[in-house]
Amino acid sequence: MTVGMTHFLILSALLFCIGLYGLLVKRNLFSILMCIELMLNAVNINFAAFNYFLPMPDLSGQVMMIFSITVAAAEVAVGLALIFRIYHDFATVNIDKINNMKG
Amino acid sequence: MNDGIFTVMFYLAAIIAVTAAWGVIYCKNLVHSALFLALCFIAVAGLYALLNADFLAAVQIMVYAGTVVILIVLGIMMTRRVSMDRSNVMEKSSILGAAVVSLLLLVCLLLIFLNVSFVDSAVNDIQDTVGALAQLLLTHYVLAFEIAAVLLLSAMIGAIVLAKGADEK
Amino acid sequence: MEQFALTHAWLIPLVPAAAFAIIGLFLQNFHKLSAAIAILAITFGFVMSLGIAGAVFNLGITVDAPFVQRIEWIKIAGLQFDMGVIIDPLSVLMLLVVTLVSLLVQIYSVGYMKGDKGFGRFFSYMSLFSASMLGLNISINFVQMYVFWELVGLCSYLLIGFYYYRIPAREAAKKAFITTRIGDFGLLIGILLLQMLFGTVDFIQLRQVIPVYLMANGAGVLTIIGILLFMGPIGKSGQFPLHVWLPDAMEGPAPVSALIHAATMVVAGVYLVARAYFLFASLPILMNIIAWIGAFTAFFGASIAFSQHAIKRILAYSTISQLGYMMLALGVGSLTASMFHLMTHAFFKSLLFLCAGAVMHAVNEEADIFKMGGLRRKMPVVFVTMTIGVLAISGLPPFSGFFSKDAILAAAAHVSMPLYLIGIVTAFMTAFYMARLLFLVFFGESRQKEVHKVSRFMQLPLIVLAALAVVSGLGGYVYNFGDWVRFGPPVVEHMDWLLASTSTLLSLLAFVLAWNIYGSKRWSSDIIAKKLGIIYTITFNKYYIDEFYALLCRIFIDGIGKIMYFIDLYIIDGTVNAVSALVLLFSKLLSKFQTGQVQRYAAVFVCGVVILLLCTIMYLDKVNGVLAAGGAF
Amino acid sequence: MDFPLLTIILVIPLLAVGLLMFIPPSSFKSVKVVAATAMCISLGLTIYAYVTYDSSIGGMQFTQSIPWISDLGVSYSVGVDGISLPMLFLTNVIGLAAVFSSWNINVRPKEFFILLLILITGVMGTFVACDLFIFLLCYELVVIPIYIMVIIWGSTKRVTKEYAGMKLTIYLLMGSAFMLVGVVALYLQAFPAELRTFDIAALSNAHLYGTLSQSFQIIVFFLLLLGFGTLLSMFPFHTWSPDGYAGAPTAVSMIHAGVLKKIGGYGLIRLGLLILPAGAKFWAPLIIILGLANVIYAAYIAIVQKDLKYVVGYSSVSHMGYVLLGFAALNTISLTGAVANMVAHGIMSALFFAVIGYVYEKTHMRSVDQLRGIAHQMPRISVGFMLAGMSSVGLPGLIGFIPEYTIFLGLFKVYPFLAMLAVSGIVFTAIYILRVLQKVLFGPRDYGLDKYKDAKGAELVPLFLLGTVLVLFGLFPQLLMGVINSGVAPLGPFLQELNNVPSLLVTLGGIW
Fold first, then answer.
1. What share of chain C is helix, strand, coil (3-state, %, to 5)?
2. Domain of A38: which CATH number?
3. Has residue C499 been placed in a domain?
């Protein structure tokens, strides 16, 4: 069986779910940030795969990946800044301690 | 590209990526996780290269494996207080729930992916990807491109303001 | 001159109105100037009225052929109101009386109000009142009349409450306004119904359509309208049961009482009935009601005046009683007698009030007649003029009251004996209480050490009014008042000497009685009061009507108001607040789900995604179909 | 019309808002001057429009229309006719008065005046809009500034200002939610998909094409009635009004009672009656009953109130009852009266709130029990009180009389017995107004109040402006009635046709 679209999709699904699992079980903000990056990457793989395997005349999929990476980079920057802020204010990076929005 | 090599390379990269991803969440030491993340990103870059996205593979390595991971590690350093040994443990109480949710999602996704029959005969085989990308970015996607630029700028400013602390003047 | 006056009659109310605006806006603090402007304005009105009177005599304007001018005030689809001027002997009479009395009272006020801080304000209100009253006199339709009717009510309110820092004054002002408002409520409904029924409220037009309507439809609806309309005069002219405001209105300065609450405004009700006599006269039931209310009020007012102590209150109840006479005259069908009495009453009653004002002014605002006495030596001018006034109101010949009252009694005797009897008893009572007043104040030993002098400004009007109180009746009789001011064909008045002598005798009897009790003190008034016992107490307390109304008001206004407020606060608003509390409760419940744990939120979010994906799975074959057809998403 | 007069009138306050942004918040004086100047210009232009409006032609004038979202049939289109022009005039007069009555605001004046100008613009927008979408847009624009202003600059007495602000806002939003549902249903139903439009004139013709069935009209009108009725403080949705006014700062009370409420009546006529005539006719008996309840019930409550703002609050509920009655009598005379009464009540309640605001600002007292004899210390304010009170009582010669008279007359033609009840309102009004006037203004001098000064300088502008309008329109009612008549009179035949449409009573009779 040749490697096709489905393989890539399954791989990305796997990566995505691992990232999700990490996101849900970890308590360290950095760790959560890393998991999010993992999930974003999983999505990007899909873009690349669609662009490659589907009949498409140009590289629109890859352009989308560029935007996605841009957004991810911005997100990391802001996310890290937020973590610093939180660390500064709460003296912790453990997400359980940060529940001011509790109803 | 040869089909056989393609297959081998795919599986190789895939196994590395999944293992590294698992490593990211399995490691108890945060720094180790970060290193696994870098490995995972490199493997994904390999996948990109396989999919005729060589420019993006380079970007992936530069931005993710290079910058992002390093940034994260730096951040970890700056907020470190005690030993890194048990800095990244899983919360025991939420493992079950998280596993269920993730597996559910996985099953759903797999169900969909396995049941959709894609026609993957044609292969997008543009050689000059950098040129083609540049062409697209500056013509059809120019507005989005500019907006992305503004987004980055504002993210940068926002990050600086946030990290510096607005109330400290 | 006559022609000019006739065609420029609209200037008569307008000039005092301008005076009001000028004084009110700019000249409040320039006392002399404001008085001068006000008096000049009303003098202008008086001169113009004289000119118009001349025109009416010379140009043959009669009640059947009035001179009318009109200008459009409002015109919208289906509705038009004019403002205008109607000149006929009726309105000319009113114009003359109002301008003359107003002029004299204002001159008097220059002396009376001297040194008061609100001098300018007083004259501005007086000008506004004159303007409104004159506007009312020349009204060509009900709406115009209602407009000015309300405006004179406003002036009355302002002037009763002129000493606004005194609590009784402000309460009296409120009472006056609200009580007359109740009457106006009926009047307004009546006008609305007329407008609806006939599409017009113009006197001239109504006069033509109403007989036609009566022929076709009978008197039923019109009688109801008439009763509603008559509620206005009941309120404004202090008829029973809405008379309660008038005695309290004496809290205003004496000139105000003289002008507004004796001579002019309170007769507006009489004038309204007279003006719309074509309507009232054609409704026999209504005429009966008017006559009986008038007669009852006449008797009722006199019976209270019997036992009062405050000088102006006695005069106020006397006014109520005399207004009752006028209504009685209207009710028995004699417009002439009513208007005749209106004129003479305006002169002698304002004279009496001004005298009372002068007396009170002289004795440091003391109002109780039992605390006065022996003033005839100290203020001879006032004594003489007041005596003339008392004789006039008591109906002794040859003073004016004799002729007018006799005309009313004669008219009543023609229609109904009971009414006549009430009238004649009232006449006796009137003579008695007026004599009582006179003897107590001016005879007996003096109780005041110091008496303030009466200034020239105050004396002159007294003398002029006294002269008028003497001659106006005789003049009217000699010059055939009834030829001019009449309804229907002119009637030749001739004295019914039997009736006249009866009433004269009764009045004399009353004087003798009063002299024995209050003048020579032969019979003690206290013992008489005791003997009369309960009757005396009841009349002294004005039949407890005020208390009764206060009770009604507490129950039906405050009581219901409180209940309504309770409903509003706890039932309507309570429901609203309960709903909001319910929402709040629900949101508190829901907010328990908000743990603040971001990861929980993420897990829930993913669950949502899973559900969406499950939906996608259900439609998977469709997706495949699209893909197989070669289509892109 | 080439010269976009109405647009300029609308834009001037917004320009002032723009200008205010650049003024440093510390320069109180210039903030106020800018706001006042803008409103002066706006009022001047409105008076120009009022004078040049040709009542002999009638209809929409000074129109301007620019397509905006053509897919939805939305266009920026404005214009005024005999019904909306007086309302526009009213808005500007009260707007200017509100600016001047806030002259002593020293807490964040810049923000206050920015919000005030936005509020005024929003209200003006609803009146000049010829497009339903613009109408709704402007209406929603109004709600938010009010909330902020009540919360920040309001006052707490019986209820806290937060409660008052919340109540006001939620009621208005609830009302507008119903209204929105109705409007969307109307929009979808009136025309087939490709012809859909928000143009009010086009929608007003929709019932002629038969696309709006009678039952549809009845339902949608009910939704609109809920929305506009809430806004108009129709019984039993009126309790926001006294509480809200009590909590709100002076300017907001003035604008809210003076003009914002009138959007309810205006909307009922412009949208309810003209677009959904059968619905209006169907619900008219109910509106009459509720209007009567407003008139008498609220008057009764006003009698027992102690707080001046509550008295005026309930009094405004009571007066709005007349508007409802005038509307529901459905003839030209009563409709003219209803519109005129909106103007009359707007002016008088604005004057009331202005003087109460002054008294409160100086003495921090608002209770009838505490204030007594202020005519000694504040004669000018007392004159304002008297004027407002007397026109509220319906004294001829002031603005209140003719509108009430025409409403009564119109109502008598339809429901004579209910009309008699309505007329009794004039007695109740006299009772509560005079009770307040005599207690607060008159009586012995209270030396404790001697330290408070009478209104002076800029504070006199609202008194003078509103007082002038009160007297002017009272003495020469044709100035007002003529313009309104040009808007209402053409509806005559239209209303005549409505006589044959069944009303609620017929339905109820059928059930019986």
1. 75, 5, 20
2. 1.10.287.3510
3. no
